[in-house]
């Protein structure tokens, strides 16, 4: 049985919702919110929709967030009711390659900047216009501890997350007069598809990143996002950094021998 959209339930849009943190966040929020789930994998989007429909009203949008025209078309395809977005969770992001700056692949650089930075901006601009009109809303940007620390071979990925950190702070200032909360969640090592994408499908290399430690999992980050959303209206949890117990920074990790 599908759930009817309720006027009392807020609408949350989640980007990158077909895997990892985005999917875990959708699962964590479905009991309490109506969801717009975005991603590039149509089959996976439909499966998640089928799984969550008994709990929530679900709308799916299949598009490439790095393509400005696709973003605009996807947003404009929403009905007026679905455009009443209360919370935007900018989760979509990726890392491509792990190379010294002089050896970097410019295609990898483009992918990271186009998705992590420009994609976040493209969609936020559309959603924020409507939030400003109604003088309320909440933006949650998924950052990284790489947005405040630089590590060897991280160069452009770190730069993209430094940009997310700066954009988040800029949003908070610019939107202050419009009653819009802006938060950022910045995890350390999270065991998702992230490393497998970074190493272009090399699972052995990806698994080595988490060898000898108990990393964070997508559900851990989703729990933090839910905590932010469950806070009272007068509270804006502006920034949260979370690490697995064995990690102290981007470069300091205690591994079992």
Description:
It is a single chain. The mean pLDDT is 94. Strands 3-2-1-4-5-6-7 form a seven-stranded parallel β-sheet, sandwiched between helices. The protein is built from eight helices and seven strands. By secondary structure, the protein is α/β, with parallel strands linked by helices.
Q: How many domain units?
A: 1
Q: Strand share of the residues?
A: 5-15%
Q: Indicate the mean pLDDT.
A: 94
Strand order of the largest sheet: 3-2-1-4-5-6-7
Would you tell me the structural class of the helices and strands? alpha/beta
Radius of gyration: 18 Å
The third-level CATH topology is Rossmann fold
Give the second-level CATH assignment, the architecture: 3-Layer(aba) Sandwich
Identify the CATH homologous superfamily.
Answer: NAD(P)-binding Rossmann-like Domain
Provide a short characterization of the protein structure:
The protein has 257 residues and is α/β, with parallel strands linked by helices.
List keywords for this structure.
single chain, 257 residues, alpha/beta, Rossmann fold, 40% helix, globular
Which helices and strands appear, and what pairs or packs with what?
Elements: E1 11-14, H1 20-29, E2 34-39, H2 42-52, E3 58-62, H3 68-76, E4 87-90, H4 106-134, E5 137-142, H5 155-174, E6 180-187, H6 194-198, H7 203-208, H8 218-230, E7 239-242
Parallel strand pairs: 1-2, 1-4, 2-3, 4-5, 5-6, 6-7
